[in-house]
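Possible race condition, two jobs.
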Amino acid sequence: MKRFLFISDFDGTMTSQDFFLQIMYRYEHAKVFSNNWKSGFDLLSDVFGSINLSEDELQNEIEHIPLDPYFVDVVNLVRNCGGDFLILSAGCKYYIERKLKSVGIDNVNIIANDGVYKNGGIELIRDKNDRFYSEKFGIDKERVVKYFRDKYEVIAYAGDSFVDFEACKLCDLKFSKGRLDNILNLFAIDHYNFKNFSEIVKILNDKLKQ
């Protein structure tokens, strides 16, 4: 059994805004949201599929994703302590991988929905044969944590929304912001609230030295 796994959501957790919201606000795709009641995978498919940008223009948008500058410090700390770092997202690998590469990071494990550039946007790909498949979100985060639960002594989780709740509550160390923080408070579940990853570094430094 390995010692430690740190799992982090991407959109809204490692970033200050979800990428699909960035796209909606900049290209008036709020119309896509207001004209239907879709959510999860279907909503993202609608928004990302209707961007109507060249691949270079889309790359430029990806490079402007507001990434938390301190998350690299968490990655390095976890690895220096013999642990693993995993990005777990119900978003899309297409933009996550490209954002990380744009800041010089290309060796972080990612579990997220697959996607390809097609017809001016990102086409999300459903993989119903994937062990972590979710009909609503594409990725079942709770199932991912359950898979790793008996493979690590300690699992930490950082998230920001209700999509993270079931997965987060299974973990030993819980870091939250946004709606997830409110939900954990509602259920009186012990956790650490954070605004950026520099705060997580301080807590992990203490915990991993114990």
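Job #2 (started ~2 s after job #1):
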Amino acid sequence: MGTVHVFDHPLIQHKLALLRDKNTATKDFRELVKEISMLMAFEATSNLPLKDVEVETPICKATMKMLEGEDIAIIPILRAGLGMVDGILALVPNAKVGHVGLYRDPETHLPVEYYCKLPADISKREIFVIDPMLATGGSAAAAIDFIKAKGGKKIHFLCLIAAPEGIEVLHNAHPDVNVYVAAKDSHLNDHAYIVPGLGDAGDRLYGTK
């Protein structure tokens, strides 16, 4: 069964509190999502495999550590997941970026797919699926279904805020996927919003509501 990693780093928690504030403006919200994503990615990549390489410094040759394999793929779930991409790319600029487009049916709350474009070498990459919110878990589970169907294997899910219900759904569907969150909140309300949450991440990122 995959594990849940909750990051309690003071900088992450401080920025997350600002992000939750309903008075935080769109520009500031966008910047906070980017900053938190970068801090979380730093923590979430701590176990990436390394290999020994020979480097010649100005003084001598020495054996050093570098990333092993085909590096990283970042897969945002559209549209809110896009807000997290730049923060992660600041750390791993050579990562390839795919996209999965889903929306939640307002009546059934189930995910509906409209787009999926992934790197051709997705099977060789360490994959980070990203979305600010893990609410019902339906969209995350469906996105990972699509990625696995196209050959993705080493998959992690990275989000800012998660509800227990969403974590359970995701782990039931994909027990091999680890979940990384900045906060595990209380529950979902009757409209399938996370409580206390931060509202609709997409609307707050793009000023559409």
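The longest strand covers residues 154-162.
Logs attached separately.
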